[in-house]
Amino acid sequence: MEPNSSSLADKSTARPDEQAAPPANWLDHYFGVTRRGSSLRIEILAGIATFLASMYIIVVNPAILSDAGIPFSAALSATVLISFMSSLAMGLYARNPILVAPGMGMNALFTYTLVQGAGLSWEVALGCVFWSGVLFAILAMFNVRKAIIEAIPPSLRYAITCGIGLFITFIGFKNAGFIIGSDATLVTLGNMDASMVTFFIGMMATAIMVILRFNGALILGIALTTLLATPMGRLWGGDVVVEWSGLAAWPDFSAVMQVDIWGALTVAYLPFIFVMLFTNFFDALSCFMALSESADLKDKDGNPRNLKRSMTVDAFASMIAAPLGTSAAQTFIESGAGVAQGGRTGLVAVTIALLFLPFLFLSPLLSLVPGIATAPALVLVGLFMLAPISKIEWTKFDQAFPAFLAIILMPLTYSITLGIAFGFLSFVLIKLFTGNIQEIKPAMWVSAALSVVMLVTTH
């Protein structure tokens, strides 16, 4: 498939005693590129493919975190730094072709549930992120994933992902003014103005590019919608939403070390920490399993390759994210774009990490992007997250009802934690009063108890 790179790798491994290894051969040897049936060229191209599929997070994450009060430029610097550091660790330590960056579900939970919903300051919310990362690291180090996986029913795990997807989609529509508040019906369609038309055209163009499998469809959609929004307030009605403030600047580290670690250690905040832990843990595990199946990234026992190391990287990425000034980092399912290109080793993740780094200096340019330009990406990400809905056994009502509550209550209550809480509570109550108490694992009893604590202390 790649004759030049493959022949070079074959020569380098044929006679190890003669290797005065140039850098390419050292990379091949360290990452096992040839041994995995790949080549240096394929690995680098796979890294570029994953980066293009996921670079929207550089703009979208700061846009969401700025709603929590974190300055856009500071959130952008934190986003780039944690993406660089954690992806580099995933490549060099876990040696898997997986991107780690601030997750969409986690940033929504951080901003709209903890800060806007529960009234935490963003510094205390970062403290909750830190402690969830500490607990994640403990779970990863002691390898207790099997017991936790077996405790939470698959229907609820799938439902939580789907519910977060609907919630993110709702945020996208709200940010674009496509959905607005209404005294009569709670929500309704927004005004048919320049902003709505611009958003709708951008959303449809982004969807078409996704359907046609354009590389980097989401970031292209953001760029196109920004261009469409530029004349607003200038050539036709509406406010000016796109304003030039420069091309490059030194990184903004004003949010670094602003985390309130001890302020987060309050009994009322424990459920939030648990929900963050739960969401991040299962997102990571689900991502690793899906990618290992699709690309045969398995060990001799049939488990995802280097799973313990990968989970450890994900856990420490969450811990480091908080002091840097962003919500928790997690594995990205968009890593599948690079895997589909043939990427099989940690060199893919290293390539991704290096591609993130230049954007550390481009916050003025990226601040051009208005809310209506990131909104189409939020809508599409929500769609992607709805994929597991087909795995829920809807004909089994004792499984379907808790899953349904979790899914529908997240957007309707504007809270991820409330959706999870009522999903857990309803599952435990249904099993308890239908004579199936033996199906409730200890971790589910703990989850239900934490849900009650959260409901009592925060509502």
Automatic annotation (TrEMBL):
Residues 1-21 are annotated as: Disordered. It is a multi-pass membrane protein. The chain crosses the membrane at residues 44-64, 70-92, 99-118, 124-144, 156-174, 194-212, 217-237, 261-291, 345-362, 369-389, 401-430. Keywords: Cell membrane, Membrane, Transmembrane, Transmembrane helix, Transport. It holds the Pfam family Xan_ur_permease. Residues 1-10 have a biased composition (Polar residues). The keyword 4Fe-4S does not apply. It is found in: Cell membrane. InterPro entries: Azg-like, Azg-like_bact_archaea, NCS2. Belongs to the nucleobase:cation symporter-2 (NCS2) (TC 2.A.40) family. Azg-like subfamily. This is NCS2 family permease.
